[in-house]
Amino acid sequence: MSLSKLSSQAPEQALVENMVKMRHLDEYSILRNLECRFTEDEIYTYVGTVLIAINPFRMLPLYTPDILDRYSESGTLAQPPHVFAVADRAFRALLETWKDQSIIVSGESGAGKTESTKLLLEYLMEMSRRSGGDKGAPTESEESEESLEELCLYAQTILEAFGNAKTIRNDNSSRFGKWFEVYFSRGGHIQGAVINTYLLEKSRVVTPEEGERNFHIFYELLAHAATNAEIAKLYSLGSPSSFHYLAQSSVSSINGVSDAQEFVKLTDALTVFQISKEDQANIWRIIAAILHLGNITFKVTSVQTASSTQDGSLIENPDVAKQAASLLKIPYEMLEKALLFHSYGSRSLIYIPYKPQEAQDARDALSKALYAGIFNFLGQRINMCLSKGRGGSLSSHKTIGVLDIFGFEILQTNSFEQLCINFCNERLQSHFNEECFRIEQEEYRAEGVQVEDIPYKNNQPCVDLLEQRPTGIFAMIEEEINTPGGSEKNLLSKMFQQHKGSEYLARPTAKEGLDCFKIDHYAGNVVYKSEGLMDKSRDALHADFEAVMKTSADEEYLPVINQARIDGPLGGVKVDEFKATAKPGGKGKKAQPTLGTQFCLQLNSLMKKLNSTKPHFIKCLKPNMQKQGGLFVAEEILCQLQYTGIVGLCKIRQIGYPERMPLEEFYLRYCPLCYTEPDAESLIMKLAELNVLKDGLWCLGHTKLLMKHEQSNVLSEALEAVRLKACILVQKYCRGWYWRRWLKRMVGIRRFVKDAIAKRDEKLLAEGLEKMDDLPSHGEHLPEKAAAKQLLTRLREEKEAAAMLQSAITARDMKQLEAAISLSKTIKYETDLVKKARELLTQLELEAEVYALCKEAVASKERSKLVEALEAANKHGYDFAEVRQARGLLARMDQEADLLKKYEQSLAAKDLKSVDEVLAKMTDIGMELPPNAKETLANLEKQVARKSLEGALESDLEKAVASRDVAKVEACLQKAVEEGLKAPCVDAAKTFLHNVKKKKEDLGALMAVIKTLEVKMAGTGGIVIADLEAGQKCLKQLASYQFTQDESAQVNGAQQTLRKGMAVHQCVESMHKAISSRDYNLLSTTYETAVKLEIQQDIVEKAQQTMKEIEAEGPQLPTGTMAQILEIARNTRWRFDKYGRLRTREQFAKGKYMNRKKTMETMFSFSKEVIPNSMIDLPSQTSKVAVNINKCLLAFCGVRRSTYPAASAQALMDKGKAIGSLRDEIFVQVCKHLTDNTESKTAERGWMLLCMCIDLFSPSVEFELYLLNFVAKYENHEEWKEYARYCLRRLEEELDMDEEALADSVHQKQVPSIDYITQVVGGEASPFLSEVRNQNRKL
């Protein structure tokens, strides 16, 4: 290993993860240890519990779900140094002690503080998710909202866009400080968050340095406008070089970063924080206005005032100014006046013209004020969403604060911003010294422990030089601002006079500049330029611009932005709070605090907060100034080690006892190790006797036990072992109780079902079967369930048969009775009801026989037949209409014979009177008069009367038939028959009644057939074609009838049942053919049809079993062309959700107690939730790896927020290449992710990942056809066809290789680098699309 010259000076010794364990401890030994570890990509090293993090300036696979799991599951004791370890230590300390924690990330600009902060928050968010557990099924509104954990990560995107910029030292430098407070519940679940921001570098808006960029948002908006002509036209946007505020630096892009893609991420994040599209448009409008303001230029002109002519300014390009005014919705005249003149006076205003430079300064002040307003507005909106939390007051929760503050800066030109930034770093270094040196050494003395004092550089005098009132530099700047005629020159003179002799303030050399002052900071000497110092500290917007903003037509948005600017930084003390303590200045007025004073107050508030928390430190180091990956410049690192006090920290941690615990707290925490000991001292002695407390690693003070880190770790491990043993014991009893309770429940359910079977109670059986569904495997293995299902089916069949019998008995319908009795016989159902039905059927058959005799006798009018029919009727006591009709006809025949006899006797006796009487009687009864009647006139009159009677009868009968009233027709017909009416209407009436009766009989017969069919379809026996043909025959017989509304409904229902019956019959027939031929495609189709038709027959289970047998046989990959193979692969058999090695839905959702149903439903379709188990049935350890693979998949695709999504993809592919059994699992997970995914962004990432995976490794032989089936579905998809075709080409190449060649190919391939994956995502490298397009051109 080639080491630097400085590192080579150190003696050779073993590399250590914690540098307090080094045998030789000096600057060079520390440097050597860091450099050797850095060359092995070990960028993290401990000094005690302080983490040293060296920026690698390249992506490393150190943040995958697997690595996160190591720290979250097993803690930090056995794990190497890592930023996750610091977050885990803070999280566990919060829950164990229930005290506020803080993580202070420090280092110079470009050392990696912002990235470390992101990783800390990502870890805390993941721990919150795991602590929160399942929270139940989300409501419809909650499904569309992001979780609080996601919101915390989205906030970073917004703050980086508006608060970060590329500098000479750092491509993503935070130009503001932030204190991120995350509120946790007692269970470790995030309840809310607040982000405090400090000192936004507003001057960057108007004067970015050469080689640097303005804030990211300007370039992102312009990049978006370059691809969106509508936006470009709306805001008059062009390239960065066309705007003065951006063109001052020649740098407008960042290597490896797409501003257009970053803009898309930004808009997504803004939407998450409920910033509407309209509000976003207003933000872009004001950002564009700021750019146009910067392009306004001024020239000298003479201005006539009331008393004289003065030099003033004139806008050279009014068109640009009008564009800015239009975007701000301000009258151009008002903006022009505010830019060219400033006013003073209270009663009457006097306007003084600006000189060109002054007008330019006024323009810049307005631009900075607008930008600060937008930044504060966004911060307030973020805090509004984050602080809502999950209900309840946040004050009742504890916090973990993460401080990401600007790094120490030494630039070519250092001004007010650098003074504030470096002062902040001085305070933080002082806090670090306090915690790690002074307080620790004082505690050793107080506890009576002899430890050598370690010298350290105390920077408190430098802090006092800057902050102390009234002689501190910030106080003197404020005083000079409030002094009439104050200037930077006077300020310098007073500073040097006041601090004459101070070793921290010095006059610069002539070469450095006479208008400067030099401060000796802990990190080195910095020369500050005094020019503009007072203006920047004053940071005031002239009242003229305040008045102009009030004239804006934008009455909603611009006032909000302006108010946010006035409210000041989010985490600072507001102006109103300071006024009470402000020093009088001017003409008795209270002076407004300057920006420097406000910043000091903010910093005091922050330090007060830090002092109230348990601190955890991360020291970020920058290995080189070129931002080059893998380059370790020893001189740079050594300098940072020296001024941060790392060497002294190593020494004091090595010889001292950094872990100090009050005896009472020690006893409360560690008494489980030996719970018989009554107090702390006896517990300590006992632990020492047991060698848990190691000699030389601890010391007993007056009130505390002091320990080295190794001893603290030993105690923690011992306590963890005791707790684990206790947990296992508790789990033992809990699980025993749980399973006993479960067994008791299962026994109870089985007993309940047995009782239901014994009682033959349908309701109890259904309830018992529903309860059995809660048992393992839904109780299918228990004999009671099969018996209960069989009995329940039987009871339902009997119920249906009984209903049919009762209906037939009530209707007294012979065909219904025959059908019901036939069904009862089919299902072997014998009850009194069946006996009653049979008796009724016999009775009805006898009635029908008598009815036929009577009808025939009446029709023949033969007396002998009438007598025979009436004898039969009298014998059985029948008296229905036909019997009465026959009886009436016989009586009439007897009466007529008697009259005829009397008539003949009267004629024989020549008794005219008697003849008249007989004829009269004949006439009265309507009997036909004999042909030898003497009185023709009387006969004619009788004939007329007869005709009149017949006409009335015919009329009544025709009306009754026309009305289709059965009762009326029967009455009229009986009367006509009795009167002996012979007419067509009589035949029509008889036909009508016959048809009505026949329709009723046929309809009853149809419903009986349908009932039988329904019962058979609901049962397991199945139906035959004869059942369907009987129904069709009944329908044909009913075709000529007219129906009432109720009858039509019955017929329609019968037709639907017949159609379903035909479908069931055809499905079952096809299923028989499919089973015999083992045709998987037909089996699959018929099985799905059977499920839809709810067919309960045994053949369905047999079909399902046959499908499983075929699937278990595995695919036999065919030979032939790709087109032939694809033709086979398109068969539904090869759908990826039918892969034989997949888990069942129940196995997949095992262990998921909330949202279990939804998890099962989305097993084979897109879901934002992490899978609970592997998709394929894998061993438990491999299944756990599969779950982490899913986390990587979701992180890469953007479903889960991740700091390094490309690293997640690389980790996924690395697992697939290394572990062959996981390859099919990866492909199945990607297929699941892409199925029914309506989110184009996440779906496209999924296709990219699928292409890269197929490039790297192939599916197993068993899964190849399944993968081909999935990809082939998208071959002509409008959006994904090019990705799909690329996959097909790669799979075709793999199909042509034998297994050995394929294995060699996988072995030789390299997992894509993180940089390459990043380029693929960013569109800089698109091998999938370009190759397919080239192939298409060839074709």
UniProtKB/TrEMBL annotation:
Pfam family, one: MyTH4
Domain Myosin motor: residue ranges: 14-720
Any GO MF annotation of the entry: microfilament motor activity
One GO CC annotation: myosin complex
Binding-site list for ATP: G107, E108, S109, G110, A111, G112, K113, T114
Keywords of this entry: Actin-binding, ATP-binding, Motor protein, Myosin, Nucleotide-binding
Region (Actin-binding): 603-625
Annotated ranges, domain MyTH4: 1166-1321
InterPro entries in UniProt: Kinesin_motor_dom_sf, Myosin_head_motor_dom-like, MyTH4_dom, MyTH4_dom_sf, P-loop_NTPase
PANTHER family attached to this UniProt entry: DILUTE CLASS UNCONVENTIONAL MYOSIN, ISOFORM C (PTHR13140:SF706), MYOSIN (PTHR13140)
Record's protein name: Myosin heavy chain
Species annotation: Cymbomonas tetramitiformis
